Structure formats: C-alpha cells, structure tokens
Amino acid sequence: xxxxxxxxxxxxxxxxxxxxxxxxxxxxxxxxxxxxxxxxxxxxxxxxxxxxxxxxxxxxxxxxxxxxxxxxxxxxxxxxxxxxxxxxxxxxxxxxxxxxxxxxxxxxxxxxxxxxxxxxxxxxxxxxxxxxxxxxxxxxxxxxxxxxxxxxxxxxxxxxxxxxxxxxxxxxxxxxxxxxxxxxxxxxxxxxxxxxxxxxxxxxxxxxxxxxxxxxxxxxxxxxxxxxxxxxxxxxxxxxxxxxxxxxxx
Length: 250
What we know:
Number of domains: 1
CATH topology: TIM Barrel
Shape: globular
Structural class: alpha/beta
CATH class: Alpha Beta
Strand order of the largest sheet: 4-3-2-1-6-7
Order of helices and strands: EHEHEHEEHEEHHEH
Distance between the termini: 30 Å
C-alpha cells in the first residue's frame, strides 16, 4: 500500500500522542471513530500502564510536541487526576517543557463539567460541546476492502493528530487503535522504542483497508449510521462477547 507521506523517518508521528485512557462514554454516537457508541465498553487504561509509558518516554529521552488525553469521555476515568499527576512528570522534564497537554471532552454532563473545573491550568481543554446521540461524523464504518479497494491509502490523521496509545499498544492514529479494539488484530506496538517505519507501515497495511477515513471514493460526511459488511460482522462479534483477548502494554 502506498501513501503520500514519507515514513523513512517516522519521528513526526511519535511527536504527538493521543492517549485513549478510557473507552467509556456518556454519549451513544453511532458514527464515533472510537466505536464508543457502536461497541460500548467500560475499559480503562490502568494507572500502571500510564506509568509505564511515562517511564519509557523518560528512560529513552523521547520528546513530544503534544499529548492529548482522550476517550471515550476521559472525565469518566476513575483515576483521571492520578493520570494527570503522572503526565506532569513529562511536563516537568526539560525535554518536554514546550509540550502542550490537552484533554478532549464532549462537555455533556454536569459531572463532566465539574471535573473539567478541577483540572490544572496547564491542561488545555478541547470541549466539542456535542449533543447526545450526535451522528454528524465521517463515514468511519465503511471499509474500503468491502468495496473491492484492496490498496487503501492512509489519510493525514496520523500526521495531523498524532499516534494513538491504548491499553493494547501504540498505533498510527487513535482511530486505528479503536479499530484494533473491535477487530482484534492484536497489532499494537507494545513499546515506544519498537516504533519504526516498518512497524507503522505494517499497521497501515492492515488498518487502512477497514477504515472509512482512508481517502478513497467511499469516504463521505454522513448524518446516518452506515456500516459496511466487515464492520457489521466485527461489531456483532464484539458486542456478543465473541472476541479474543489481546496483549496489553506494560
């Protein structure tokens, strides 16, 4: 699979990290590219995993431009403030002085607003102010492979938004992390030092052919929940519990 970005040096991607600390959400958006509405779960990244990420980043002198705290709805994580304290260690590291830390929220509930009001000032808040059940998204659940597109290219999300980190590893993007959670390919890279052009390309080769963000003729903005065959089957297995376990990080 070919794309329009140079992966000979993958460093532009690891410079930005979206950490999906929870897949629990207080909304049911049916086109969510984290599959929170389509494949709901209360899964959280553990504080132990966050500590592992911070330790590896410091031990290997990783530098970041931006770290996003994501969900689901991140304010629903029961140890959110403990996670923020761990990330503060990175913030205070001399190599990460200019790193921006953000938390993305839907801002829906009174509980969420109360949590947001307690966040330290160095955490920037990205509040989408969504409405419950919102359907206005890109067609994430249309798999190019279901439309005889075997060579689906990657989009610009990895470079624009950064890599995704979930309980199951590092991925080229957050949407890719969600896709692996549902399809159970178990292709998350388990540590930062193993990320390279080959590992990223191998993930692209699997993920993009199932992702509606891939810039093909089927990508579109939609207000209705539209799923292609592969996604229908994957969600059916996931929601019925017919899923295999995957290896966790750290």
